[in-house]
Amino acid sequence: MSAESIKTVAPILITRTRSFWFGILPAVLTGIDVLARSVTDGTSEPIAGAIALVLSPITGLTAEDVHSFMVAIAPIFALIVAQQRGGLSRPYTT
Q1: Rounded CA gap, 73 and 22, in Å?
Q2: What's the CA gap between 16 and 22, in Å, rounded?
Q3: Residues contacting residue 12 through CB under 8 Å, at least 6 positions apart
Q4: Residues 6 or more apart in contact with residue 85 via CB below 8 angstroms
Q5: Coil, strand, or helix at residue 13?
Q6: How many C-beta atoms lie closer than 10 Å to residue 77's C-beta?
Q7: What DSSP assignment string belongs to the chain?
Q8: How many whole angstroms separate alpha carbon 45 and alpha carbon 33?
Q9: Are 22 and 78 in contact (CB under 8 A)?
Q10: Looking at CB atoms within 10 Å, which of 11, 37, 55, 80 has the fewest?
Q11: What DSSP designation does 85 have?
């Protein structure tokens, strides 16, 4: 193999990737809500509460509505991360 045929992939910061913004961050935020709800009396949802506070004047959503939606779409986060981590972005393929 010649030196010209070797592809070099420069490392990038994880926060500059789509898998972080559309997969990892939503999963972490959902995890925080689920954890907060499980260690309290079942009414504490800090992330869902903040989202509901912003959206409630427009949509009328409650923290419970937002939390239920976040938990319902949580499996999609794993699929997004798995798809984005394919190809050359897998560290064991380089």
Answers
A1: 12
A2: 11
A3: none
A4: 19
A5: coil
A6: 21
A7: --GGG--------GGGSHHIIIIIHHHHHHHHHHHHHHHSSS---HHHHHHHHHHHHHH---HHHHHHHHHHHHHHHHHHHHHHT-GGGSGGG-
A8: 5
A9: no
A10: 11
A11: T
**Residue listed under structure tokens 């912003």:** 54
pTM of the model: 0.73
Residue 75 has pLDDT above 80, yes or no: yes
> Are 45 and 67 spatial neighbours (Cβ–Cβ below 8 Å)?
yes
**Has residue 92 got a pLDDT over 80?**
no
Tokens of 78: 């794993």
The continuous run of DSSP H or E covering 63 comes out as helix 63-84
> Quick one: CA torsion of 37, 39, 34, 32, rounded to 10 degrees?
110
Q: Do residues 74 and 30 touch, judged by C-beta distance below 8 A? A: yes
Q: To which residue do tokens 């798809």 refer?
A: 83
Residue with tokens 């045929």: 5
